[in-house]
Design a protein that fits this description.
Elements lengths: L3 E4 L16 H12 L2 H17 L4 E5 L10 H13 L3 E8 L4 H14 L3 E5 L2 H4 L1 H11 L2 E4 L7 H8 L7 E6 H6 L4 H8 L3 E6 L1 E2 L7 E2 L8 H10 L6 E3 L9 H15 L1
Parallel strand pairs: 1-2, 1-10, 2-3, 3-4, 4-5, 5-6, 6-7, 7-10
Antiparallel strand pairs: 8-9
Helix pairs in contact: 2-3, 4-6, 9-10, 10-11
């Protein structure tokens, strides 16, 4: 049975009062500034996790802006772990940018291991610059790295980026929304990477050429067909419900999307 998780990056615009006018990094910076202070971390992390659990989710992906390897102390980690346990939420991945240096990547791996997250879903410059060391480090920490497609405009471009070899620890964390943005066949893409698919960010967008996310099934990505393809492929990993609006709270859309995915899986 696939774990269905809530991507905490869905709240990218929350600390801007859902008025994100300068792009993703504006939300990232505001979120990190809000969550970093240890004096308030327990209350703020608790409020977020309680809200996610209240939507009916039993699993979560933690976006690095909510717990970042640059500033996470052992106390941050203790708080995060106990909060997730109290709400009975499974941590299925850490999500984000895992650095451009060995030191950064190793800190990200340490954080994932301490948190019990099996997958790093996102990107790192080391995939291109220092792949052999990256793979050996993943094995040392018992982790998998799933590359999340963002700029790639075709299946071939995406598979070329990940390359060959190290299939045990380097694979794909597919973001279906970006396939919609670039008018790529999302089902064909899932099938193409199936043997190395470590994680799925199930996302819908309102139309090609932009990246305005929406409730699953309300946009142009054939998300129901994607889920059915995952079942046919016997994919057993987690499916993250991702929806990151810049100007409103995504809770009700994510709750509705969770019900839809449960129905498609059934």
């Amino acid at each position: 049975m696939n774990s269905l998780s809530f991507m905490s990056a869905n709240y990218v615009a929350r600390q801007l009062d859902y008025n994100m006018t300068e792009g993703w990094m504006q939300g990232d910076g505001a979120t990190q500034a809000f969550f970093r202070p240890i004096e308030t971390y327990a209350e703020r992390f608790e409020n977020m996790i309680a809200e996610i659990a209240g939507l009916g989710f039993t699993a979560v992906d933690i976006w690095l802006a909510h717990l970042h390897y640059d500033w996470a102390t052992e106390e941050h980690i203790r708080i995060a772990r106990t909060t997730l346990a109290r709400h009975q939420l499974e941590l299925v991945s850490l999500a984000g940018w895992f650095g451009g240096t060995r030191a950064e990547f190793e800190k990200a791996c340490w954080l994932a291991q301490e948190m019990g997250a099996p997958v790093l879903g996102g990107n790192s410059a080391l995939l291109v610059d220092d792949r052999e060391w990256m793979a050996s480090t993943l094995r040392k920490f018992g982790l998998k790295f799933g590359y999340e497609n963002h700029p790639e405009k075709s299946i071939q471009e995406m598979t070329d980026k990940v390359g060959t070899g190290d299939e045990d620890v380097i694979g794909f964390c597919v973001d279906t929304g970006w396939f919609g943005t670039y008018a790529v066949d999302a089902v064909a893409a899932l099938r193409a990477v199936g043997p190395r698919l470590f994680h799925v960010h199930l996302k819908d967008v309102t139309g090609p050429g932009a990246h305005e996310t929406c409730r699953l099934g309300a946009g142009v990505v054939p998300v129901a067909d994607c889920v059915r393809a995952l079942v046919a492929m016997q994919y057993t990993g987690a499916i993250s419900i991702e929806h990151e609006p810049e100007h409103y709270n995504p809770d009700e859309d994510c709750k509705a999307s969770l019900a839809l995915v449960k129905g498609w899986l059934a």
